[in-house]
């Protein structure tokens, strides 16, 4: 929100009458009196309380002094925020609400360490941002999906399973699996939609843990204006770390007759907020996810 400058001009009747009505033939003593009055009415004294009240704001203070005029320019304080029922993106609420959401989902290990209070705060912050930003129209903004996105929060991870709201292996319970970074790689031209997950499997001592990157490849299509349907194709597992020299292993999609009902090979989610660096999605099972561009 651009700031404007406001001029504060001293209006002293005695100074005005003296400086504009004195004849050119006035004596040197009158001239000295005028100069003394100008110095005494300098804004460095009269306007200093104003400057002091503007703590915390950027101030520009320029002084122009001649025999009959003194001007001071000070950036005005910001206007008060509008009433809550009148707020809109025009008051630059979106950056504040984005920061509020990112703060709410920080420190919970992408949701794996979230408790009920953490889930509530994240949900409330997401709803507030979604409400102010309005509905997403991917028919116009599909190009904003392009790129590699880092998952920073999933409400389903609070279930402590890698499947989230769907069945999946547990973390830190029966199996020594550590979840690393999670990314989504989206190509709007080829319609590729890859979920990329770094995993670490514990091994008996003295062997080091096994590190792998699993890439779950999907194709996506736009449904309506803000929903996306993904269809699973294959999973590629690539060893990293000490075993990075091993070739990747492709796990093809199971035939429909052999695939469990809980894993139909496709899914849908809605993009509820999207800008150049932040994305919010809501899954078909109510899962809230927050991504940032990486």
From TrEMBL:
It comes from Parasponia andersonii (Sponia andersonii). Residues 1-51, 66-89 are annotated as: Disordered. Belongs to the PAP/fibrillin family. The lineage of its organism: Eukaryota, Viridiplantae, Streptophyta, Embryophyta, Tracheophyta. It is found in: Plastid. Residues 1-42 have a biased composition (Low complexity). It comes from the Eukaryota. InterPro entries: PAP, PAP/fibrillin_dom. The keyword Plastid applies. Residues 97-291 form the Plastid lipid-associated protein/fibrillin conserved domain. It holds the Pfam family PAP_fibrillin. This is Plastid lipid-associated protein/fibrillin conserved domain containing protein. GO terms for cellular component: plastid. Keywords: Plastid, Transit peptide. The keyword Plastid applies.
